[in-house]
Design goal:
GO terms for molecular function: metal ion binding. It comes from Actinokineospora alba. This is TIGR03086 family protein. It holds the Pfam family MDMPI_N. Helices cover about 50% and strands about 0% of the residues. With about 190 residues, it is mostly helical. It has one domain: dinb family like domain (Four Helix Bundle (Hemerythrin (Met), subunit A)). The protein has a two-stranded antiparallel ribbon. β1 and β2 form a beta hairpin. α1 packs antiparallel against α3. The longest helix is centred in the middle third of the chain and has 22 residues. It is globular. It starts with 10 loop residues before the first helix and ends with a helix.
């Protein structure tokens, strides 16, 4: 993705890029890496994949498309019937389709926040996908899939939604940052990673 520091991504670009990197991170998992630990406390790579797919399906369902996940994304089993790659691809395709059909100024979310401005609602969906792509990539020894322009957008969304979610353990306490830290570092530390 070509971008200068002054260009901003639209919410649709942010969402598409987040979905792309989630799919790529899952496709990059080796056969012997599905049970590796991740930055998500006590979850394996497979469990993070299940959680990420379930969250995407929850967004699609909340937008009125599909019935949502048929499992609890917050208690992933660590066992996927079929291909984890196909699970994520299906979830991303359904969610992308749901967002493509959304054209109002606000949108419902599965978050306790409820309805949010469209850029924040879609950004929350993107944040979930992108951060779990990072979790999977890091756990499997792959480079970070996060770009600086994407992190700039996601950090703004994170500041709008994360604080109330910390009380449920969705995010650890924010870490310290320095003024010259990259947007990626600031985002990951803000999310407690």
């Amino acid at each position: 993705m070509t971008n200068t520091s002054t260009e901003r991504l639209t919410w649709r670009q942010t969402l598409a890029e987040s979905h792309r990197i989630l799919e790529a991170a899952v496709a990059g998992v080796g056969d012997d890496q599905w049970t590796l630990p991740t930055p998500c406390s006590q979850w394996t790579v497979t469990q993070v994949v299940q959680h990420a797919a379930g969250d995407q399906l929850a967004y699609a369902s909340t937008l009125g498309f599909g019935s949502g996940p048929d499992f609890d994304p917050f208690a992933p089993s660590g066992s996927v019937d079929g291909s984890p790659v196909a699970l994520v691809r299906d979830a991303v395709e359904r969610t992308a389709d749901a967002w493509a059909r959304t054209d109002s100024d606000t949108a419902p979310t599965p978050l306790p926040h409820g309805e949010l401005p469209i850029a924040v609602a879609a950004g929350a969906c993107a944040l979930d996908a992108a951060v779990h792509a990072w979790d999977i990539a890091v756990a499997t020894g792959n480079p970070s899939p996060l770009s600086e322009p994407l992190c700039v957008e996601l950090l703004e969304v994170a500041h709008a939604i994360v604080e109330p979610l910390r009380q449920w353990g969705a995010f650890a306490a924010a870490g310290a940052t320095e003024a010259d830290d990259s947007a990626e570092t600031r985002l990951l530390r803000y999310l407690g990673r």
